[in-house]
């Protein structure tokens, strides 16, 4: 059975500041699979938002199959000129949405760093739109939602952002063991 999944990405709070100069320029990406080439959708980038950001943006994922797609994966990234940087991520079990009244859920979800530590919170409204319907009725009250650190999601991000997964001590060791070349 396919339907649509509507996600309203409201805001995030308590994000880690990953910028060396200035403030985070965050955007959020959502997907239903952890494969390296999985389809994803994203919000607009909010320049100089810092640790707290508001998007208030609706995303609709067509062809949502609730029998085979059980988790919504959320990634908060910092827009950079060359390579974007991972801020935090989470996996949201969709069973809490499917079992909610009207198959709609409004909640705040913990975000995680690549080492599994909690860092920040993202606020989402998630609703299932059955085939032939238009919009879900989203609840007004916000509750603490279930989210978790998924190792498969972490592995996906490790492939996409390898520089961020090198421990600082290891990076320093790599730099100090590089041969020094003097210019003549």
TrEMBL record:
Residues passing through the membrane, by range: none
C2 domain segment(s): 1-107
Domain of life of the organism encoding this protein: Eukaryota
InterPro entries with a match to the protein in the record: C2_dom, C2_domain_sf
Gene3D superfamilies listed in its UniProt record: C2 domain (2.60.40.150)
Protein name, as recorded: C2 domain-containing protein
Originating species: Linnemannia gamsii
């Amino acid at each position: 059975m396919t339907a649509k999944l509507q996600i309203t990405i409201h805001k995030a709070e308590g994000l880690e500041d990953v910028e060396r100069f200035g403030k985070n320029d965050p955007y959020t990406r959502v997907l239903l699979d952890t494969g390296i080439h999985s389809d994803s959708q994203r919000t607009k980038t909010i320049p100089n938002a810092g640790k707290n950001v508001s998007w208030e943006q609706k995303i609709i994922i067509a062809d949502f199959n609730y029998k085979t797609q059980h988790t919504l994966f959320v990634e908060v990234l910092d827009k950079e000129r060359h390579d974007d940087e991972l801020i935090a991520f989470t996996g949201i079990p969709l069973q809490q949405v499917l079992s909610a009244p009207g198959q709609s859920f409004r909640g705040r979800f913990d975000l995680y760093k690549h080492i599994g530590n909690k860092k920040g919170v993202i606020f989402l409204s998630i609703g299932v739109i059955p085939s032939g319907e238009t919009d879900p009725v989203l609840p007004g009250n916000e509750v603490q939602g279930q989210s978790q650190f998924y190792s498969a999601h972490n592995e996906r991000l490790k492939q996409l952002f390898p520089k961020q997964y090198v421990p600082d001590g290891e990076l320093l060791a790599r730099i100090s063991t590089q041969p020094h070349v003097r210019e003549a």
